[in-house]
Amino acid sequence: MRYTCHFLPTCVDFFCLKTLKRCSSLALTFEMCENINKESQDAEECNFEHVTGVNKGPPPVSVVIATALYVAELVTAAVLCKMYSDTEDRFWMGFTITFMLVPSLLTQLTLTFLHRDLESDRPLVLCLHLLLLGPLIRCIEALVIYFQAGKNEEPYVTISRKIKLAGRQTMPTEREISQSERKLATFRNAAKRSAIIQAFLGSAPQLMLQLYASIQEKSILPARVCLITINLLSITYGTLVCNVLAIQIKYDDYKIRLQPCAYFCMVLWRGLEIATRTTALVLFSTALTYWVVPIGLGNLLIFFALPWVLFWKKRASLPDSLEKSLSKFGTIVALCLITFLYACINTFCYSAIQLDLAHRDLIEKSMSWVQIAMYYSLRFAENTFLVVMWYFFKTDFYEYICAPMLVIQLVVCYVLAVTFMMVFYQYCHPCRHLFSHNVADCLRCACCHRETGPAVPVDVIVSDHMTEDDRPCLLTVKQ
Q1: Residue 225: which H helix or E strand, with range?
Q2: Helix (H, G, I), strand (E, B), or coil: what is residue 169?
Q3: Beta strand pairing status for 49-51 and 169-178?
């Protein structure tokens, strides 16, 4: 009995000691895990290059350029309409006014929608929009915000995390975004979208109209030459904006910075492409006037129906990310307007954005060299057909022009445009190191007829800090 009594405390002490050791080991393990997690979090934070301090950001150059082109085109078209009225050219005056007012009204509606003016009490701004002076007041607002930013210390409202590309090396960076910089970003995005609308719904048909009028009247007016020049600049700028927006939306997680050589290649590529396309359409319309209508409507119908056919083929539902205040009917109307703008862009040049109505961002973010090759091959064949038909049915106006040389020049210009496009994607694209296949690989496979697997699409890396509401959309402007 004594043995048992002495044995029980010993056992109790033994089990208590073992329990204490286990608890202490568990506590030590938890402490080690917490230290490891803390060290990993510290290492993850150290991987980011912190940019502290709130700055004004880049100046709103895009807003100034879009406003200058809009005002210049509006004033020049009004002067030309006055000249048409004095000479009683009702036909040319009517079409000039149409191509001047319709895109201007669409631009006002776009700016009002993107800036959400209907939800705020701003009667003066709405009145200026009714007077077609909306882009001007937006430009003044953006300049005032830019020059006043930084004078008073303001706390940042959000932190932006991007991945900076330096060759094949990547460096995550984060910077503080102030309230003024956030507002300026809204102004820039709205100005870019309005510039695209103005370019392809106004400047492109206006350019074709004035070129056609110059050939039919066999005279060149100074105001008409000025309007043609402004239209060509507006369309070229609109195509540049399309390229930049496509890059920014597809690679939203990366810090995009284009070099001057990239802008140079894009200007030559887009300028030659637009000039060749419009010249071919105008020449064909002077020889076969009524046949240009079904060709233009056919292009619009094909590019308008293609996204909807793919949408119905996927049996997808309508995206709910356009605007929360829109009803189902309003969403369909907005998608139809976006698709119509997409069709107008592809009628004159390559849009650089492929619509995907089933996706919440409305675009396809993978690079498809097959689609680019098919588009430019079919467009080259169509332009060649239009120019050849003009050559056989041309009027007497071209009797002092070397028609074969003009045909060769148009073909060479389009080939040069495609060449500068390939140079841009091969050497000047800011995210060219992210491509699974570049232009040289595609040309090598096409020339050698090698059997290769399908191209792996380049997916945009979405970081952990981004939510679905933070991803950019083609229609909405994220603040």
Answers
A1: helix 222-250
A2: strand
A3: parallel
Q: CA-CA distances (angstroms) from residue 378 to 299, 338, 448?
A: 11, 23, 22
| Residue 320: DSSP 8-state | S
How many beta carbons lie within 10 A of that of residue 90, not counting itself? 10
Contacts of residue 31, Cβ cutoff 8 Å, sequence gap at least 6: none
Q: Are β-strands 169-178 and 156-166 bridged in parallel, bridged antiparallel, or unpaired?
A: antiparallel
Q: Which of 429, 17, 461 is nearest to 254 (CA)?
A: 461
Please give the Cα distance from 194 to 346 (Å, whole number): 17
Show the tokens assigned to 147.
């020059």
* CA–CA distances in Å: residue 233 to residues 69, 164, 186, 275, 277: 8, 32, 24, 11, 15
pLDDT tens, residue by residue, 323-356? 666 677 777 888 888 899 999 999 999 988 888 8
Handedness of CA 425, 270, 265, 260 (dihedral sign): negative
pTM value > 0.85: no
Q: Residues 478, 467: contact at Cβ < 8 Å?
A: no
In SS3 terms, 68-101 reads as HHHHHHHHHHHHHHHHHHHCCCHHHHHHHHHHHH
DSSP string, 347-367: HHS--S--B-TTSTTSB--S-
Measure Cα distances from 62 to 14, 17, 36, 189, 196 in Å: 79, 74, 48, 9, 12
| Blockwise average pLDDT, block size 10, the chain, 479 residues | 41 41 44 44 46 64 93 93 88 91 90 79 83 90 85 65 68 74 86 92 92 86 91 93 86 80 92 93 89 91 91 78 69 86 92 81 76 91 92 76 86 93 87 71 63 43 39 47
Q: What are phi and psi of 348, to 5 degrees?
A: -105, -30
Give the phi and the psi of residue 340 in degrees, each rounded to 5.
Answer: -65, -40
